[in-house]
Amino acid sequence: MTKTVILVQTIVGGLGIGSIYALVALGYSMVYRSMGLVNFAHGSIYMIGTYFGVIFYKGMVAGLHLPYWAAFIVGILLTAILGVALERLFRPLANLDLMLMLLGTIGVGIMLDNLAIIIWGAEGFAVRSPLSSKPILVGGVALVPQMLLIIGVGTVLMVGLQTFLSRTKVGKAMRAAAQDREIASTMGIPVNFTNAVTFAIGSGLAAAAGILAAPIVYVNPAMSAAVGIKGFAAAILGGLGSIPGAIVGGLLFGVIEAISAGYISSAYTKGIAFIIMVLVLMIKPSGIVGETTVEKV
Amino acid sequence: MKTRTTLWKTIALIAFLALLLAVPKIARNDYQVRILNMTGLYILLSLGLNIAQGFCGQINLAIGAFWAIGAYTAALLNVNFKWPFWLTLPAAMVVAALVAAVVALPSLKVRSHYLAIVTLGLGEVINIILVNEEQITRGAMGIPNIKRPSFFGIPINSEQRYFYLVLAFVILGYLVARQITRHRFGRAFRAVRDDYVAAKAMGVNTGFYQILAITISGVYAGVAGVLFAHLNTYISPDIFEFRSTLFVLTMTLVGGMGNLLGSVVGGVLVILQEVLRTFRDWQLVFYGLAVVLVVLFFPGGAVGIARRWRERQGARRAREEEANTVANPPSEEAR
Fold first, then answer.
1. CATH number of the domain enclosing A238
2. Could you tell me if residue A297 is inside a domain?
3. Does residue B334 form part of some domain?
4. Is B11 among the domain residues?
5. How far is A236 from chain B (nearest CA, A)?
6. pTM of the prediction?
7. What is the pLDDT of residue A242?
8. Cα gap B314→A155, rounded to integer Å
9. Do B137 and B77 form a contact (C-beta atoms < 8 A)?
């Protein structure tokens, strides 16, 4: 194997993991943009969303073995409903002091994590990929089918989100409400409704990420913390509140992780990714795509 | 009036201290004293967090990592070089302060949410190093056989004796924190917290105070780490994971951020957590629920509730006085 082949393989793997981070980061950024809320329960929503999908795929609900794509859709819908319920719960938290927000949402996250342990057990399980596990060879580069599925579906979802936000009436209303709450509501935009839709979409994307990632990771309640923190780091890296920023941040974080795992040290993968994030923020404090705002405390 | 309240306060304080001194005798078993010892350690951590975050507005999600640095410095020096407690203590304070100062550097550039993820990330990096540098830290296996301290020849070998050591450090830590926050540093910290731009314009060296505040929180966490290492005699990286930071943050907010007494009151949470253990699997569900309820209904924490109550009392007294003056207007001569 030549060096370029290994590099291409590493980058494809990084883009796969990065798509997962990007989908999670989108949830953070969308909710932050529209409600001013940093939702630290988002990692737990990702975990619950994964379970909501894979329990139908693995026949854990009344022995029902749905095909992967159907379980994928059911999981997204159920998690979106959970998101709407959480939006109602978090509404009083929006625009509170950051630390109170952090604690309030983390409190909900702790509840969700431990309810998951009570319902599904702490042990977790592996999920079989619906595609073959044999790598496809393209010009000497071995590509895992599930990885390609993640990148493909992830891209479709991100493009779909962008189209929804810029073309549809609801999407435009959501953007208006995010930009200026008061003016939007005087223009007749039901701000609470658009926030609920935002939360539903953010949660649905997290579920999509989790169900896509399920065959390449080990599904267990503890998965919420790792991806929750990395998704937030990705959103910050790109610029919190920016949709393209979340995508760029997520993909970049995934690629950095893959490269440092492949070339530097697998034990320090996460550490190196965090350090690069800190360095980027030192150079550009508002994130890669984020707008520079002089925030007067 | 004023002197009478001061007198009552002094009596209450003396009674409280006497009660604290008697605690090891009242406690039924070592386990209960151990919980109180842990409460003391968490109060120290919370004081540190409070100085950085409550007074200076510098979000510090690396406090658990600073705690780890203190504990590991003490443990390694004690196990490898047989340094006693009284030598590991200053060493760990210095090392924790240096690490904290480095972690504080990004605060010069990033603020708010960004500073939160930066300190969180650097804290994670420290934990990853502790897990992976196995030749030095023994990795996930942890470090056993850390020696208990002694005080002028008296071995502090029981939970009860350790209680007095912890108590002394908590009182000392509280008094030092009070000195720091009441005088020049405290004023500068609050200026940086309340209006960063104005503070800078007034000639406050904001960057210096930001780093100083986080460094002080590192020293507090370092002391708590040394005390923990010699108390538990065994440490491993999982003890200091991000959830320990979260716990310190929660107790500070429940007690009252920006008020040193809040850190002490927040210590109740350590005991509450032990009580919740009877619910087994549901323990953390209830804990999460309690946190959510506190944030939604008592965002000012316990100290905030006390303050609101006092203000209401004050307002009522003012109203009563006003009613009196309206009822009996002062006569012409009295004026």
1. 1.10.3470
2. no
3. no
4. no
5. 7
6. 0.85
7. 87
8. 61
9. no
